[in-house]
Write a structure and sequence with these properties.
The chain has one domain: Aminopeptidase. It has helices spanning about 10-20, 25-30, 35-45, 95-110, 125-135, and strands at about 1-5, 50-55, 60-70, 80-90, 115-120. It is globular and about 40 Å long. It is about 35% helix and about 25% strand. It has a 5-stranded mixed β-sheet with strand order 1-2-3-4-5, sandwiched between helices. The mean pLDDT is about 90. The protein is α+β, with helices and mostly antiparallel strands. The N and C termini lie far apart (about 40 Å).
């Protein structure tokens, strides 16, 4: 049975493996020490606007995403939500895990009265684009990024 829940400190080794599967070259090169990872995790989970979710099946962490609720002065003071770092383990893809995690992210965003839930994905990740579009997500904006290193 699949369960989506908030991540716990004990999940950090599994989260590290999932982030490595995301093929983030910078993660491999700049992989934080376990102590730094624990410290960053503790800070994030204390902030109630950060939701690091994991998908757990039969005791194994098979997916994760990070949901951020951010508050601002526009849109009638309604917050927005952004999804980052969506990863499902390669051995568990195409089993509804990503869809279930994104559904939970949408539920949390609605519960926080967010006016939108957004995500970005690399322009080259065509399979991911098809996945999001199949779930009802639509391309509505152009996204730009500025490397700061």
């Amino acid at each position: 049975m699949l369960r989506v829940r908030r991540a716990r400190a004990a999940d950090l080794p599994a989260l590290g493996r999932l982030y490595a599967e995301l093929h983030l070259d910078d993660y491999r090169d700049l992989k934080p020490s376990p102590a730094r990872l624990r410290k960053a995790f503790r800070a994030l989970v204390r902030d109630l606007d950060h939701h690091i979710l994991v998908a757990e099946r039969d005791g194994e962490i098979v997916g994760t995403l990070h949901l951020l609720i951010f508050r601002h002065l526009g849109h009638g003071l309604r917050p927005a939500a952004i999804v980052e770092n969506v990863v499902v383990s390669g051995a568990h893809r195409s089993q509804g895990i990503g869809e279930t995690m994104l559904g939970e992210a949408a539920r949390i965003a609605r519960a926080n009265r967010c006016y939108k839930l957004a995500l970005t994905t690399n322009v080259a990740r065509k399979r991911a684009h098809r996945f999001y579009e199949r779930l009802g997500w639509r391309r509505t904006h152009y996204g730009y990024s500025l490397g700061l290193d």
